[in-house]
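Annotators were shown the component list below and the corresponding predicted structure, then asked to write short factual statements about the assembly.
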Amino acid sequence: MISPDADLLLEIVDLHARVEDQPILKGVNLTIRAGEIHAVMGRNGSGKSTLSKVLAGHPSYTVTAGSVRYRGQDLLELDPEKRARIGLFLGFQYPVEIPGVSNLEFLRVATNARRSELAKEDLDPFAFEDLVRERLEVVQMNPSFLERSVNEGFSGGEKKRNEILQMALLEPVVAILDETDSGLDIDALRIVAGGVNQLATADNATLLITHYQRLLDVITPDYVHVMAAGRILRTGGKELALELEERGYDWVDQELAVLEVA
Amino acid sequence: MVSASTSTTSSAQPMAANAWITEFLERLPAPSGDLEAVQWRGREALARQPLPSRRNEDWRFTDLGSLKALDPALLAQVEATEGTDPAAIPIADSADALPAPAAGTMRLRLDGRHDPLAGQTLPAGLTRLSGEELQQALGHTLARCGCEQHWPVEFNQASASHCLALRVSGSVAETLELVATASGESALLPIRVLLLLEEKASLKVLQVQLGSGSSLSSLVVEMHLGREAEVQHGLLAFGEGEACLLAHLAVEQEIESRFHSVVASRGWALARFEPRITQVEGAAHTDLKAIQVAQDHQLVDGHSRVEFLGPDGSLEQLHKAIVDGHGHSVFDGAVSVPRRAQRTNANQMSRNLLLSDQARIDTKPELEIVADDVRCTHGATVSRLQHDQLFYLQSRGIDAATASRLLKRGFCQEVLVDLPAAAASWQPLQRLLAEV
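Structure shown to annotators:
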């Protein structure tokens, strides 16, 4: 939902970043307002996953130029945990397994960390259990996954549901979902996408990072950005995703070649 | 105030290994009681057998300096008394307030000298072995597991004057909890246990070994599991100060028996754990889990051996260590699969968490596989806290300190979940991780 007067949530200006000595992002510009759903598409290696990790504060990536402002605040100077507490959420492409740490306890500690930032009181285990059972319905997840270790032995679809469950508990302002559709069969995709749609409101925003159109059949983006060689090459509406689906990414290469020459 | 101590050994260098054992043997009281013959044999063996040194392959990574620093003359002052009122078992010290036993638990205090069963009523399914049965059975499993002449075993045999020996029949509802606490200056606590499980018998047994001061705890356990018998065994071993522990666990498993063991240890200047399991005809299941923590200058050593003497046996082994400070952890896991042990399925994993640059980890799987139709896996990892796990937690708003605490707890929990339920009252997780 596009509304030009909506609050500015995320403003990325000329962002450059590298991992080790390898430059990956080479001048990303992107502005996200409340109520909007953005999709960033692109080939493997175009830099779209790097963008999501840089925004979340992954320590392996170094920002070499540019700025990111989150609701007017310099995001890049904050620890990853602070970014999460103030409302930035990254749904992982490959959610990490943590043997021995109970999913329920993990979810509770994370939820209370976010709540303390919002000046809400901590939820004790009983109150939290009520909340989590209610939120499980967003992703139609079996409660037995709460008793297990974080993501351990979960199938690909279960891991992604667990990511969206975390999103439902943390109620982020800006949610970045990195390849949330990868590895999902069509039913799981519908459930996960349904969860994302339920959580989208006029006050928050979603940034979908995806390779394929099929996620965008179930979540309708307001903007589609095509990323290549560490930049956003083109921005359009949802029809741009359909065009990509039809024509493939080859034209991106041609456009990129023109750009490199110029 | 000037100390009136007349001790002349306070700053002495640890003495040469042979002089150490000679002095120990000379000062031991004369053999007596049920184990008199065993004591004689143990002492003769020790007199012939020098203290293990790092030239022995089995002790290559294990420096016995902390053991030799104990005063052999004081250690030898174990008194051989028999049949005394169990109430006379001295509570080690006033700080040694033990948690109340969990419901459904039969607690026995062991001190290696008194009879822990005197005045006690054993739960249904447990009976004491007669003197004759004891003489017949004692040492049998040690021999079967090839460790009856190991130095820590001989040391125990030389000094222990009592053995808790029980026959187990049927399914025992209560958990048997065996608690031994050692404290004081160069105090020796030799514990010997023998459990014979009849066909289809099952037992949960929790051993708690606590050590403080400059004490030495010596533990030798033998278990024989008859066909389809099952044992759930836990060993909580928590030391402090200069305390040392040498623990030997020998287990013989008949067909279709199941043996599960969880060892959790922390805080000993020197601790060595040697589980030795023999599946006498294969076709049994063995589950070994351990978590050991070493910090400061502590050394903890897990040396296991599992031998399959017939086909269709299985092993699941997970050995974990956390080392910090100048701590040193050793793991040596031998698995023997001779030709007759076809279709053995053995999985062994050693996972180590290295929290300081000065800490050290030696880990070594030792697979001896001759049979050709087997599935044996092994692996070892040494790592800091995993960055991807830390980042995942931080990306959910959990601060770095809390995240690393959660990860360390998780690391331990994976082992501790399989402890007998009665272990909870000893708070093993808190003991493992306080201030780490």
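Statements collected:
1. The interface with chain B takes residues 56-60, 79-81, 83-85, 90, 92, 95-96, 98-101, 105-106, 109-110, 113-114, 117, 149, 166, 170 of chain A (CB under 8 Å).
2. The first strand of chain A starts at residue 8 and ends at 19.
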